[in-house]
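Example for tutorial group B:
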């Protein structure tokens, strides 16, 4: 398996470094692994090779990414000595290009008996001004702000600085003498008070601003707005930047907020809530008078329809782009025996599509440096009932590849086609393990399912002015979450439109019209023989007609980018058979013609 063998020496070096640091009591609780344990981790067939993760133990939220002193730095929630969530530290790594990464010692550790004794939780980094020669920021052109958990379990906000800001590796960090800079939320009770954002500077009034995640118990989430003249002393603005009441999404806590411009006229607010990272765009204004406003436009969406949470972004001043990562957790019971748990998605560039006002995400271009030999299949005709195996090159393995699938032609009768991956058998053989990426084509406007319903998966009910299936279809196509629409009249004769974020089975129902929007489903039902591996399906809508899919398979993680990143999905699979390496194509209802490029991928370490 590519990358695993070359990763072992790096793992051994990192673990040796951590043991030396531990002996100096920087991280007194960390333990040293024997070489045979390290070899086991490096050779683990489930361990990703081109997704970021620490050499061992638990990882969750990405923290404080920043470009500083000509290097990219990435911090993360890290629990040494455990594959379960426990006492948190800030792990640390650096990169020259966001593709290849080098692990560094832990950056920030809890201080016993202090305001962060019980954990260094999520936060952000801010570059204040590299050219500032006077004032309190002159000695601290970069700072990290994080949520500390104090002796009472309370969430407080704290600041740390690089001990030597000219050190390109930023190896040593010191905590601000006046921590915590925020001792609690401005109201009580609050659902939480955590995850401060990167600060932004406002020329209108010369203030720095940031938001902190919070909420009202049992009611709604909030992003609390704070202001500062020097990034050291922070005060509540007196109002939230965004009050989620009535909420377009979410519950009573907005975790891990992010706020940044995506166009000259639009800002994006991202919050992690109800297990997903949701976004809303709107206008941000500072008209003077000491108050700023964020007014949502009504465009709401999700960053990823699968296993993606607690994302953190930064503005890449080198390449002039916004880059984000999401946390991908485990979905089986094997983490303890493997010695590691969790990873990040690929680093994604975030833009906004000017035609739809929908967020686009695509992996950073530098990841193409990891590509190995290309295997290309042009204009492959896939007939109904057949399965076309795609043989891979020489040493290319189907568990560590990138695929670009282009839809060349589709018969009018085609309902869907499938990209079968991590398959243990080829065409004509019994396939004991496989994962199916199913592309469902939209119902033609002229031929929806009449007198049929697909009960279940409802998330939005709209009252129509009249019974109008076309209006219901249009509402579905305008909603970033909708994959199925149903128009009908209730018992009182009121015309209704139901939007669904799943594809339930069709059943007869009089005076009902149902249609499918294009969608992609990752069906994991046969993905693993392991009884504790997740087998549920993940589904995402297709914005527009399906045209391209970019698929990344990295051992136990799959990422799919649809139509240039207008929809994204991430999930975990845990095949157990060494032969589960195959790739093949299938079609349902009608024929399809596809072109497929497949690259092997190398390790990022």
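The residue assignment follows.
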């Amino acid at each position: 398996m590519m990358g695993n063998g070359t990763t072992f020496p790096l793992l051994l070096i990192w673990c040796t470094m951590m043991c030396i640091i531990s002996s100096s009591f920087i991280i007194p609780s960390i333990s040293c692994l024997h070489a045979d344990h390290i070899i086991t981790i490096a050779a683990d067939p489930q361990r990703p090779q081109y997704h970021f993760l620490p050499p061992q133990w638990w990882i969750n939220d990405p923290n404080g990414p920043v470009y500083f002193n000509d290097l990219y730095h990435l911090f993360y929630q890290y629990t040494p000595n455990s594959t379960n969530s426990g006492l948190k530290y800030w792990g640390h790594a650096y990169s020259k290009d966001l593709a290849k990464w080098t692990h560094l010692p832990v950056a920030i550790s809890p201080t016993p008996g202090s305001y962060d004794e019980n954990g260094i939780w999520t936060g952000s980094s801010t570059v204040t001004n590299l050219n500032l020669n006077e004032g309190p920021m002159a000695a601290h052109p970069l700072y990290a702000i994080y949520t500390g958990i104090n002796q009472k379990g309370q969430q407080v906000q704290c600041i740390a600085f690089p001990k030597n800001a000219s050190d390109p590796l930023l190896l040593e960090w010191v905590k601000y003498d006046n921590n915590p800079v925020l001792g609690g939320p401005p109201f009580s009770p609050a659902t939480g008070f955590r995850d401060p954002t990167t600060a932004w500077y406002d020329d209108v009034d010369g203030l720095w601003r940031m938001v902190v995640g919070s909420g009202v118990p049992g009611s709604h989430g909030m992003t609390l707005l704070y202001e500062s003249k020097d990034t050291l002393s922070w005060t509540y603005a007196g109002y939230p930047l965004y009050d989620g009441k009535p909420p377009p999404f979410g519950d009573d806590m907005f975790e891990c907020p992010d706020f940044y411009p995506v166009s000259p006229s639009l800002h994006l607010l991202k919050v992690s809530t109800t297990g997903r990272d949701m976004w809303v765009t709107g206008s941000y204004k500072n008209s003077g008078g000491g108050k700023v406003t964020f007014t949502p436009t009504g465009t709401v969406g999700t960053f990823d329809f699968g296993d993606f949470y607690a994302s953190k972004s930064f503005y890449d001043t080198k390449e002039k782009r916004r880059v984000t990562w999401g946390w991908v957790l485990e979905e089986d019971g094997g983490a303890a025996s493997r010695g590691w748990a969790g990873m990040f998605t690929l680093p994604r560039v975030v833009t906004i599509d000017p035609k739809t006002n929908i967020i686009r995400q695509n992996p950073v271009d530098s990841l193409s440096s990891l590509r190995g030999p290309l295997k290309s299949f042009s204009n492959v005709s896939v007939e109904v009932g057949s399965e076309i195996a795609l043989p891979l090159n020489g040493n290319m393995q189907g568990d560590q590849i990138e695929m670009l699938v282009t839809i060349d032609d589709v018969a009018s009768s085609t309902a869907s086609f499938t990209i079968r991956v991590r398959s243990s058998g080829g065409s004509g053989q019994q396939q004991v393990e496989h994962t199916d990426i199913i592309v469902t084509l939209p119902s033609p406007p002229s031929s929806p399912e009449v007198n049929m319903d697909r009960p279940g998966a409802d998330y939005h009910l709209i009252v129509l002015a009249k019974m109008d299936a076309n209006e219901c279809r249009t509402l579905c196509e305008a909603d970033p979450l909708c994959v199925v629409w149903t128009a009908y009249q209730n018992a009182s004769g009121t015309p209704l439109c139901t939007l669904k974020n799943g594809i339930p089975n069709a059943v007869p129902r009089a005076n009902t019209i149902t249609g499918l929007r294009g969608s992609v489903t990752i069906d994991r039902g046969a993905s693993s023989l392991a009884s504790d591996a997740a087998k549920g399906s993940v589904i995402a809508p297709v914005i527009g007609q399906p045209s391209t899919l970019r698929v990344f398979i990295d051992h136990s993680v799959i990422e799919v980018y649809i139509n240039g990143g207008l929809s994204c999905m991430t999930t975990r699979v845990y095949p157990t058979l060494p032969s589960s390496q195959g790739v093949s194509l299938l079609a349902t209802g009608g024929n399809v013609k596809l072109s497929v490029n497949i690259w092997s991928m190398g390790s990022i370490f």
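Confidence is low (pLDDT under 50) at residues 20-31. Compare this with the pattern of hydrophobic and polar residues in the output above.
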